[in-house]
Amino acid sequence: MRPWAGNKIVKIVAAPQLTLALLLLIGIAIASATFVESSLTTASAKAYVYNALWFEIVLGVFGLNLLAALTRWWPFRPHLVGFLLIHMAVILILVGAAVTRFMGYEGSMPIREGQTVD
Q1: Cβ distance 95 to 89 under 8 Å?
Q2: For residue 112, how many C-alpha atoms fall within 13 Å in the half-sphere facing its CB?
Q3: Average pLDDT over every residue of 11-30
């Protein structure tokens, strides 16, 4: 028996209702950032949504939710391969986004028409 199987915290964090609520919140945030970007500037959308602490927390809780769902259904059986692949893929995307967010940098290179740049 898994030691965390009866843990109420794992059950709450792994709940499908929490997953749906987080996905809805992320969708609304990204949609609103799109409208902010089109009406104001890209910097505004980054400041209000993408680089905001609350958005990072929501994405972190979403990652924990996916990890908890994986541990809740451990050990995996052959019919759960799709479940495993989807959850691991989204976790990998979130880890890649976090690495880019905290360790990456942005650059810009103006290239005019007919010009070549290295």
Answers
A1: no
A2: 1
A3: 91
